[in-house]
Amino acid sequence: MQAWRVHTTGEPREAMRLEEVPEPVPGEGEVRLRVLAANVNFPDALLVRGQYQIKPPLPFTPGVEICGETEDGRRVIANPSLPHGGFAEYVTAPARALLPAPGTLDDAEAAALHIGYQTGWFGLHRRARLQRGETLLVHAAAGGVGSAAVQLGKAAGATVIGVVGGKAKARTAEELGCDLVIDRTAEDLVARVKEFTAGRGADVVYDPVGGDAYTASAKCVAFEGRIVVVGFAGGTVPTPALNHALVKNYSILGLHWGLYAAKDPAAVLACHTELTRLAAEGLVKPLVSERVPLAAAADAVQRLADGTTTGRLVVVPSAPAAPAADGAGR
């Protein structure tokens, strides 16, 4: 079968190589899946760069989230067992963790429903306890993770402020239903939030970016507000001023979804059931901006890492072949 493999960590276009390899053999408690679609996530870029908290043995195949087909024909969502990740034709995955793919979503949409939406649901509901009528501020609102939080916030009855970088991404955030869109490259984020909320600020801030985004969040979070720290896609890990949190009475909440998968799998299943319901009712639908063939996976991971994408890029192995990007598939 074909699979992208990383022999030496580095930038995705340079480090990922498309190779012919044997199909992976399931271990105890695992099943083999045919990959129908593999969503591109920021952790994939970190894995390739050697910067993720999990470091699979070299060589490995990235791709942490797929929609796949079991040998008995079931369509499922799964997290592949590294080092045999999803940017391949076949993977292995723990049998106990397979989730049924919603029938209302196609393969690419189903592949993108899992990590980003689960992270959003746990972040907004279990950690921040978002309430109907509250104001939710979402950074990187036009991206894969941010767009999921926007949809989940609207489904929960919140007023949603989307923060984006650039006019094209602002249009996407508007189409997602944000009540206010702020282009951080052209507007004063803090002033706009305070103006929109009559000085109160945002009750909940959803931050997958870090760096300057977090700094701005602390300046415009409401009394007894909650800042949910989801990741650091901006590349800078902020150092919170805890004295500031004390005098303004707000909470800083960390969220690592993988811990729920490890420590409370029943909650993950319950969340998936809720997400399936929301998808069936048309309240959430992954924003898949591109479906790319397997040959273009390295380029897709690189573009996500560079912050140039909108919505989700999904690798579909059965898609028509396209020329490999320069430096890929060597």
Automatic annotation (TrEMBL):
PANTHER family: QUINONE OXIDOREDUCTASE-LIKE PROTEIN 2, SHORT-CHAIN DEHYDROGENASE/REDUCTASE. Signal peptide: none annotated. The lineage of its organism: Bacteria, Bacillati, Actinomycetota, Actinomycetes, Kitasatosporales. This is Phthiocerol synthesis polyketide synthase type I PpsC. SMART domains: PKS_ER. Keywords: Acyltransferase, Transferase. One of its GO terms (molecular function) is 3-oxoacyl-[acyl-carrier-protein] synthase activity. It comes from the Bacteria. InterPro entries: ADH-like_C, ADH-like_N, ER, GroES-like_sf, NAD(P)-bd_dom_sf, Quin_OxRdtase/zeta-crystal_CS, Zn-ADH-like_protein. Its EC number is 2.3.1.41. The keyword Transferase applies. Pfam families: ADH_N, ADH_zinc_N. The keyword Translocase does not apply.
